[in-house]
Amino acid sequence: MSEIVTITADSAQPTGLQAALQQALMLPEQGVERLERMWEMHKEMQDRDAAREYAAAMKRTQSRMPNIQKRGNNPQTKSAYALLEDINRAITPIYTEEGFSLSFGTVKSDLPDHVGIVCDVLHDGGHSRTYHYDAPIDNAGINGSLNKTLTHGRGSAISYGQRYLIKMIFNLTIGGEDDDGNGSSGGGIDPVALQWIAVADALKTHEDYKASKAKVLAAYGGKAANLPGPVREAYNRANEATKPKD
After folding, report:
1. Is 193 a member of any domain?
2. Could you tell me where the beta strands, DSSP code E, fall in the chain?
């Protein structure tokens, strides 16, 4: 009578680095240091695979993103903007289907009268990235007079920061250009501001960013609140692009 042999998952033969690790564990003379190095190699391979999976999923996600219409209105700057609830309603089903989830939080900002907003973008494959944006606390109108409580102004800044981060992460098109909060008074960007934006976009290292940030702040009276909105956004992009990654 023939014997029926059942092959379980545990009896499957490992391959590649996994097999080498198993073999090394059975040979005491291999040494702890070699085993640790092999495990590090295994972890690095997993991390690279997760990063590639993240990049591929992000590419698919961005290609699927719709144009978000502007239904919000800022009476102070006379500008339109996309509402956060409209953005979330349109894009959440898309990025969750591709394995992404977003987690927002706040951190202390290095800029005076700003709040730091962070967004952790996590993917099912195990890779994640953290994005950061410093938003000015919005408790004053265009003429500088206070028009909100500190709590209300901080909440408004956080909401703006969330919208900006989502737009940046998924490369969203907001009915043209979402200019809410830019402080440009709707009259275009002056040539000096355009020069600073070009400088920010050309920065390659975080040391260059910090040196240039000091210069642009000095050029606008030493106060971040004096920076035109597009200049502030350009330097926030430069910070995100050049800061060391973990």
Report:
1. yes
2. 72-74, 79-81, 100-107, 114-123, 128-136
